Write the structure tokens for this entry.
Amino acid sequence: MRRELFERGVITQAEFEAQARQIAIQTQEWEGLRNPYGEEPSELWEVRLTRVRDQHTDFLFSQFLSYELFEQLVWEVLRERGVNYGELALSVNPEQAPLEMVFEQAIALESMPPAERAPLEARLKESKVVIIRTLISDQLGYLDVAKEWFTVADLVEIRRRKIGTGRIGGKSAGMLLALRILENAGDPQILDCLKTPDSYFIGSDVFYTFMAINNLVHWNDQKYKTEDEMRTDYPAIVKDFEAGQFPPDILDQLRLLLDTVGKKPLIVRSSSLLEDNFGTSFAGKYDSVFCPNQGTPARNLRDLTNALARVYASTLNPGALLYRRSKRLQDYDERMAVLIQVVEGERYRNYYFPHGAGVAFSRNLYRWAPQIRREDGFVRLVWGLGTRAVDRVGNDFPRLIALSHPMLRPSTDPKLVRRYSQQFIDLIDLEENTFKTLPVEEVLEPRYPPLRYLAQIDRDGYFESLRSTLLDGSVKDLVLTFDELLKRTDFAEKMRHIVRTLEEHYKSPVDLEFTLGIQNPEQSRPRLCITLLQCRPQSALLPTETVSLPVNLVHEDIVFSTRFVVPEGLINQVDYVVYVAPKGYFALGSMDLRGLLVRALARLNAALIGQKFIMVGPGRWGSSNSDLGVPVNYGDIYHTRALVELAGQGVGVGTVPEPSLGTHFFQDLLEAQIYPLAIYLDDPASIFNKAFFEGTPNRVEEFIELDPRLRDALRVIRVKDFRPGGHLRIVMSDEKSQAVAYIEPD
């Protein structure tokens, strides 16, 4: 063990001996001896020094080197002493034995002829469960599924690609299990071009080692601080983490990883122990960082370690901590593992990106037409990297695809089709060695090979398909519709089969992130290649009981009504409505003031605990662009029961809001049973009772102290002020495609 410490640069032999002698002298002082040489016989001093050396070796090894390395050293010694490894492995108790021994037992069992192995199947399953629990995840829902699918060979390959100790975390666990299920239970024709990226794993214990050697452990109390304290401290946390150093043995393995992948771009993704579990997805809560990996070896290593530090720091970001608090996971010892993947895609000009990417859901609870089947799921698809599919970013839109009716759009108006098409692409600039967002027309060219499957030409409101890679007209006339992909390939069929198969074996609805490659695009039927990036269970997507809309309502009792992409659900006994007044909101002319409004909403969210309330405001809740709507995060609104978006004439946002379907924000709402609704005020079928929203007293300062500059923008409405003795009831019918909120007596 000492040899490993010296050879790996943890400590020099001279430094080690000096420290051991100093500790030995200190132990003499604890025993009342003042003269290390004169008051103790030399033989006793040597015994003392030997024991201190051994203890100090154990301490340093445990702090800087892995348990797997310790196991390896133990087994090397046992082999040298003639221990029969195979016989010993088959006789061990997997629950108590070192992991290396459990692996050896499982390998020996799985390699037996079927007839000999049959009586030992239970032992083999026990060994696999112990390995999965130690190596991948200890979540019971995951173990129940994974133990039926992983082979010992799969687990050996995972261990081979792992750096450090600890588990590989939820994101890695979900990706690996999904591929294994599809490989064993999927359609062979689909499996022909299904894969996962080239992936490497950093165990969760490296996170603790990083914090310990860089004196960062004092930040662990962030989860118990107030929200304001979390937000104040976070910039300093990021700075401290980015200044941290990794142990020499981890740096050596990262260099080897970079040598192995060459100049391929990488993405460093969070994979915490809590992530992607049943009931807690943590979608979008932690950072993922692209590493273009086009610099010198030293620069690439520096970028990679900086990305790892940023992912580690994100465990303490306020959004993640507030999410944990809302899920009663605040006291859980959360550790961050990391998933490093080669970015899927290909070079085009100076850029690197895939032909398509997105997120697919096995259930579609927000249908935009009655013929859409919930159980067939839906997809959000973009050109380029998938970041624009899973986040509500800017004034941009992915293609929404109902897998039961792929060609059925939320709107058939040509102007709206163009308005709600993708305008920007996320990609990696290989020459500038950086991640970029660029306008589509700046990147797209007439001779881009898969162009005809992605785009159509807008001919004054008529969309004409391309028959070759040649383009008659300007690139500005192109619209990314993906219509030809859906018409001329089996993309929708493949995705429908994939999500159905995974839901069946997960015993829960799922969502997955993927990339798409179009091979041989010059042919009439190109070959599609789908790469699975991530899979998570979504038990919150299970359908609710059907509700019935009220009949014979008095118009004066209706607070609002909408027919825009309505879910199925019911909210009773609403006592308060938090209302962001559109005119007042857009009069806040700076990002600072709008940020101040968001902080006020967060304080209201905390102050209204114990009250049943909803939030209503202009544009897209959760948008990163404050000109399109209120830029809240989940941690700002998680106690509300509904988020209602207003659009149309006089609101400040002139178009129908894009549904949140499939975004990280959407998943947060589903998990918390917060219903997203939208009201397009220009729609004759919509009702919006201005007297309720604007003619009632503003109760906001009964709950929080409000900056005077925000008084015209933020209101808290008590339902009983509008109708004494009444409360608000919201009924949402997917079947009737209508939601109505009305006053009923207590």
Observations:
- The chain has 29 helices and 28 strands.
- The chain has four domains: 2-65, 139-343, 348-541, 555-745.
